[in-house]
TrEMBL record, chain A:
It comes from Rhodobacter flavimaris. SMART domains: AAA. It comes from the Bacteria. InterPro entries: AAA+_ATPase (IPR003593), ABC_transporter-like_ATP-bd (IPR003439), ABC_transporter_ATP-binding (IPR050763), ABC_transprt_ATP-bd_su_PQQ (IPR022467), P-loop_NTPase (IPR027417). Belongs to the ABC transporter superfamily. Keywords: ATP-binding, Nodulation, Nucleotide-binding, Transport. This is ATP-binding cassette domain-containing protein. Residues 9-238 form the ABC transporter domain. NCBIfam families: PQQ_ABC_ATP.
UniProtKB/TrEMBL annotation, chain B:
It is found in: Cell inner membrane; Membrane. PANTHER family: TRANSPORT PERMEASE PROTEIN (PTHR43077:SF10), TRANSPORT PERMEASE YVFS-RELATED (PTHR43077). Residues 23-254 form the ABC transmembrane type-2 domain. This is Transport permease protein. Keywords: Cell membrane, Membrane, Transmembrane, Transmembrane helix, Transport. Belongs to the ABC-2 integral membrane protein family. It is a multi-pass membrane protein.
Length: 243, 263
């Protein structure tokens, strides 16, 4: 069972700076297969930079990122094929339908025709969005647009789902629904790395990586690292930032 | 096979966007038509043209500027697709594209072909109107010009791609108008032949000679008369390679600052 041995995501010795400003310093952690791991950190902790590195948009020097054993630096295409991404900023064409947006993405990943159509239907259904396939994305509310993006990230059946503050700008019910949907995905063996600064999106059973000022300040299961302290209080104590 | 599918999707998306933006199509068409119908009429009186290759006889000024206006359409189209790339960058669509498991050169190359296809459609529409205005070329001329349009479109698209790697915000795009489009267009053989330019300034004529847009226009001009202008082809291809190389360099992951936090 290689999945149980090889972590879905392994990050080692990762550093990156924007000119004189250090964004990530010797970051290392791993996400086991089928786990929901929260990348928790206050604003400016380096979460978005880390996400850009993990999606291959920027190349770290030094550092190693492997996705299901595939080195992102050496075999970027193999690694990227295993990743589904939901970016913090919206990445869709507002004037095209949900179906058209998803077909475009499917084609970028080499899927077409019946296969693409089946996967699109399946992924939309998974997120409770099946009936919206013909609607223009511009006509959807924020929560549904996000769900569409999550469905899209699943079309190529990735083993790892990366989400960069996916609930930004959503109201409380939409936030809760999306958090629950993504937690459910781990039941099918998908690993999730969920960047956030909102502690109420985490469950006791989740893993967490606390990123603070570009460094990993704590890592482990939520219940272990907080040692019984309420997560919000613990987070505040660790970072000095209100959760 | 999978790669072709991805390329088809990228080109299809660009064409679909083009067809939904009717104003863009109209603007692209009106610009050269104004030059043709208004400026050319005025310039005709002011500018005497002698017989220069590929022309075998005296030609009207309108006839002279048709290839230049085709080039102008491709120039604007190339810059327009660069504008849409900057927009894609800002909207995040570029991230989606660049995280697809395909080589970066391939993804950007497909974007380039997509932009050139849009430009080609605009040129075709312009030539149809020019035809009914009485500016006709032979069937062979149109056919021979097709690869010339593609090559010119790819070269100018590559320039746009390179610029889009450098431009961080849409607001900066006005600078492209002033510092790229206008100098490229006016310092070329699109509106006046080189010898005419040389009469007034050798320096300006030399700048025209160095301008890749001049070579693209001359490639089109000769092709429309069924002739191959080999040096023009060479310079256009070379420029395309250089611009595309610079664009790839600009989009190289280590240099891309896409990781900046969007405000």
């Amino acid at each position: 069972m290689p999945e149980t041995i090889t972590p879905a995501l392994r990050v080692e010795g990762l550093s990156h700076d924007w000119g004189a400003k250090s964004a990530l310093a010797n970051v290392g952690f791993s996400v086991p297969a089928g786990r929901f791991c929260a990348l928790l950190g206050p604003n400016g902790a380096g979460k978005s930079t880390l996400m850009a590195v993990l999606t291959g948009l920027i190349r770290p020097r030094p550092g190693v990122v492997t996705v299901n054993g595939h080195d992102l630096g050496r075999a970027p295409r193999k690694a990227l094929a295993q990743i589904g991404v939901v970016f913090q900023q919206p990445t869709y064409d507002l004037d095209r339908s949900v179906g058209a947006n998803l077909r475009y993405f499917a084609a970028l990943h080499g899927l077409s025709g019946r296969t693409a159509a089946d996967r699109i239907t399946e992924c939309l259904a998974r997120l409770g969005m099946a009936e919206r396939i013909a609607e223009k994305v511009g006509a959807l509310n924020g929560g549904h647009r996000r769900r569409m993006e999550i469905a899209r990230a699943l079309i190529h059946r990735p083993r790892l789902l990366l989400l960069d503050e996916p609930t930004v700008g959503l109201d409380a019910p939409a936030r809760a629904a999306i958090t629950a949907h993504v937690h459910d995905l781990t039941r099918d063996g998908i690993s999730v790395l969920w960047a956030t600064h909102l502690v109420d999106e985490l469950r006791e059973t989740d893993d967490l990586v606390l990123l603070h000022r570009g460094r990993v300040a704590a890592t482990g299961a939520v219940s272990d690292v907080t040692a019984g302290q309420p997560l919000a209080e613990w987070f505040l104590a660790q970072t000095g930032a209100p959760a | 096979m999978n790669a072709l599918l991805a390329a088809k999707a990228i080109i299809g998306r660009e064409l679909a966007r083009f067809f939904t933006q009717r104003e863009r199509f109209l603007a692209a068409l009106v610009r050269p038509l104004v030059w043709l119908f208004v400026f050319a009429a005025g310039f005709r009186a002011a500018l005497g043209l002698s017989i220069i290759p590929p022309y075998q006889t005296y030609i009207t000024y309108e006839t002279y500027i048709v290839p230049g206006l085709c080039g102008m359409i491709l120039l604007f189209s190339g810059m327009q697709s660069s504008l849409s790339l900057v927009n894609d960058r800002e909207s995040g669509a570029m991230r989606l594209l660049l995280t697809a498991p395909r080589p970066r050169w391939f993804l950007l190359g497909a974007k380039l072909v997509a932009g050139a296809s849009v430009g080609l459609l605009q040129v075709a529409a312009f030539l149809v109107i020019a035809y009914f205005y009485g500016l006709k070329f032979s069937a062979g001329g149109y056919l021979a010009a097709l690869p010339a349009f593609v090559m010119a479109g790819v070269m100018l698209g590559a320039l746009g791609l390179f610029l889009s790697a450098r431009i961080r915000q849409l607001e900066n795009f006005a600078g492209v108008m002033n510092f790229v489009i206008f100098p490229m267009f006016f310092l070329s053989t699109a509106l006046y032949p080189l010898w005419k330019m040389q009469e007034s300034s050798l320096l300006l004529a030399n700048l025209c000679r160095a301008n890749p847009f001049t070579h693209a226009v001359e490639l089109i001009r000769f092709a429309l008369y069924g002739q191959l202008n080999l040096p023009a082809l060479g310079w256009t291809v070379l420029s395309a390679i250089v611009f595309f190389g610079l664009a790839l360099h600009g989009y190289e992951p280590a240099r891309t600052r896409s990781g900046r936090r969007p405000d």
